[in-house]
Every structure is written in C-alpha cells, then in structure tokens.
Amino acid sequence: MSGSMKILVLGGGGREHALVWKLRQSPRAGTIYCAPGNGGIAEEAECLPVDFKNLDSMVALANRLQPDLTVIGPELPLMLGVVDEFTRRGWRTFGPTKAAAQLETSKSFAKEFLQRHRIPTAHYAICNSMDEVGDALPHFHTPIVVKADGLAAGKGVVIAPTKDAATTAASDMLSGRMLGDAGSRVVLEEFLEGDELSFLVVSDGERVAPLVAAQDHKRVGDGDTGPNTGGMGAYTTKTIIDEQMRDWLVTHIARPVVAGMKAEGAKYKGVLYCGLMMTARGPMVLEFNCRFGDPETQPTLMRLESDLVEAMEASIDGRTSDGDFKWSDDAAVCVVMASGGYPGAYQSGKKITGLEDALKLDGVKVFQAGTSHHDGDFYTAGGRVLGVTARAPDLQLAVDRAYEACAKISFDGAHYRKDIAARALKKT
Ligand SMILES: Nc1ncnc2c1ncn2[C@@H]1O[C@H](COP(=O)(O)OP(=O)(O)O)[C@@H](O)[C@H]1O
Ligand SMILES: [Mg+2]
Fold first, then answer.
1. Whether pLDDT at 107 is above 70
2. How do residues 256-282 score in pLDDT, each as one tens digit?
3. In the chain, where are the structural domains located?
4. How far is the CA of 198 from the centre of ligand 1 (A)?
5. Among 91, 278, 366, 415, who pairs with 86 as Cys (CB 3.0-4.6 Å)?
C-alpha cells in the first residue's frame, strides 16, 4: 500500500472480495474499507456495518469515511440511487445512476430499450395483468420464459414447459405471492437455445472498454441440473470468444446500449454486464446487469494485469478508452463451495478447514463469500461460502488446480459442482 486513496467497496460476497483484492494492488490505493465485508475480506480491508436497504445508512458511512472512490458490488444500492446521492455530495463513485440502472432494475424497461434501439433480443410481451397474459400467450411457442419485471435476486425467472405452466407462473408473480412488488409486471419471452456468455464493458457514458468474456454456471447440479443459484462457478479463457466476436459484441451491443442511454438522457457509466445467449441466429441479449457478476468477477480479475482503480477513475472522469484493461492470456476458473442444502435452506456456523493448504497451490486464490472469522478460524455464514479460484496457462491446468484446492478444503455439508468449464474443455 503506497498510495493514499481511501476506497470504499459496498458489498460482502465473493465478488467484493475479488474487487478488494484487485483494488488493493493499485499503486494509488491507500486504506480500503468494505461494508459489510465478510470474514475473508477482513484480512484485506477494514470491514464496517451498513444497511443496503437504507440509503441514509450508506450516506452516513461515507460521510464518516470521506472516501476518494466508492465501488458498488450489488444491485440494490444502485436501485436506491446511491451513485446519484454520493455524486451529489461530492464523493466520487463508480457506477450507474438510478435512471441508468433501470437496464437491470426493470426487465420491461430493458426489453423496450433493446427494441427501440434494434439490439438483438428474444421476442417478448410485457403484461400487467392476467388478461394481458391471456392475450399474449397464443403468440408464443413453448417453452415460454416468464420473468418478473423487478429485482428478484435470481428467483424471478421461470422456464415454463407448457402454456398452463406459464399461466401459473405469471399468476404467481402478478398476484404478488411469489416476489411481492418485483412481480407486479411480467415479461413473457421466447425461449432461446445456445451457450450463455457474460460480456462486460466499462463505460464513461460515451465510450466502452471491454473486459474478457466469462461463462457462469447457474444451476446447482452437474450437467446444468437442479434449481438456479446465485452462480456455482465460472471460467474465462483467451479463446472463450474470438476477436471478431468481441468486436461484434462491442459494435452491435455494448456501444449501441451506451449511445442509446445517452440519447435518452440517462448516460450509462460504470460496468455494463450483458447477459447473452449465443444462438444459431447470433448473440442475443437475455438481460443486463449494471454491476460486476458473481462469481464471474473472481476469475476475471485474476486475469487482469492493469490498474483497476485507474479504469474506474477513467469512467468517472469521462475518459474511458478501448484499451483500459490489459489481460493475461492465462485461463482462470472459479469453483463455488456452498453450504449443505443451498440453494434451499442451509445451516451456518460450520468450521472451515484446509484453507492454508489450498492457498499453497500455485495460482490459487480463495475468495470468501458467506464466511465469518473468529478466534483465528473461519466459519460458514451463508449459502455460497467460498470461490476457489485458480489461474494457469491453460484451462485444463486451471480446472485441475481449482479442484485440487477444493479437495483440501472442508466444512460440514460442503458441496460444489465437479464440472465447471467441462463443456469448454470438451470443445477444445
Ligand atoms: N429467453 C430465454 N431463453 C432461454 N433461457 C433464458 C431466457 N431468459 C433467461 N433464461 C435463463 O434464465 C436465467 C435467468 O434469466 P435472466 O434474464 O438472466 O434473469 P436474472 O439473472 O435476473 O434471474 C438465464 O441465465 C438463462 O439461463
Ligand atoms: Mg442473469
């Protein structure tokens, strides 16, 4: 730590651990604060309590710390307008305003925006009532994707195999039974087939700097079976997409989104996460997130060789450029170790052992998510507990190294997928 910048990171999961770890490497970083942080982050930053549901709580924290830079992990603070409020008070903050964050906080806003700007996305209908659902359904083939409009922490999407199932899902959402206000409007969507890809850029409201693409593994079980989770693992390689595809995604998706938001008076600054389906008809936008992904951030930042603070400052100051990020050609893989029962009910407070042995392995970093630390030991404190991440010259090596590390770590009830990046390995 040679710099003097006070940096505040909001969040307390594996993504925020990776952000703290990378930001700390900047020659400009001084003290790093993380709120609320977690057991592992506490080894690399000063952790402080905060309530994300409460803008005043975040303002009070920043008022006390007077950070030179604030970085926001999760979507909720963005939805509440933390960037608008902090910026108004003179605290430099990386991320989109509340208006720009609508790309994530309202799926109907995102779909209509995509249509207005002719950016490829699945055919859809926005419905405010069961009558509207009834009118729209005959125009869809099955399966039908039913999405709650608002933020639902990964629980707002149902892939309905039949029209009856779609009707039931839409009714559960619209009645408020399933997700409260987040489901008061639904989007019906054509089902797309293909590989999913997370393509992220950082923007200053005008220009974009692409990050390397990554692939997440959402389902809890091997072979993409079982219920959806927050994400059970991710990988990134130099070859996940070729340069031509990267340029296509920048030209036909990322830049038009940023230009469209500017034209509509809500300049998009910060990370724009494009969730894509790579279909036979070409890439299509499934959704946007207005922040880094979890767990894609963990392997992605392992490959980052340039200064993250600098790239974030460029976004804030309006001087983002295409080459703001320099990447290693290495592959990186993150395997999430979760609590027994996750994504359903799970127990906490289980002692975690073997972390030190895992960290001795070459290229391995364990990003902590749901953990706490007391009396020299780490304990589980959430559904997703650890993001065991390895960087190596090729994907096979990175996968082997990550699983070697997982094998050294244990806690009661621990489970993790054994096939992270397996489909990519089969293709090579
Ligand atoms: N149109 C679609 N066709 C096929 N699968 C979809 C479609 N939309 C979403 N999905 C699947 O559902 C998951 C969650 O949908 P997404 O729009 O990303 O919502 P969220 O991340 O807010 O839950 C996606 O990662 C994808 O696997
Ligand atoms: Mg998603």
1. yes
2. 999 999 999 999 999 999 999 999 999
3. 5-94, 123-190, 195-317, 331-427
4. 12
5. 91
Starting at the edge strand found earlier in the chain, the sheet holding 195-204 runs 208-210, 195-204, 269-279, 282-289
Q: Domain 195-317 belongs to what architecture?
A: 2-Layer Sandwich (3.30)
Whether the CA torsion 167, 170, 173, 174 is positive or negative: it is negative
- Is the distance from CB of 22 to CB of 41 less than 8 angstroms? no
Q: Is the Cβ–Cβ distance between 12 and 37 less than 8 Å?
A: yes
Q: Which fold has domain 331-427?
A: Glycinamide Ribonucleotide Synthetase; Chain A, domain 4 (3.90.600)
Over residues 211-224, the pLDDT tens digits come to 999 999 999 999 99
Ligand nearest to the CA of 228: 1
Here the tokens at position 117 are: 């700007």
Q: Which of 256, 330, 338 is closest to 294 using CA atoms?
A: 338
pTM score of the predicted model? 0.96
Q: Which residues line ligand 1 (CB under 6 A)?
A: 122, 145, 147, 154, 156-157, 189-192, 196, 218, 275, 286-287
Backbone angles phi, psi at 302, to 5 degrees: -60, -30
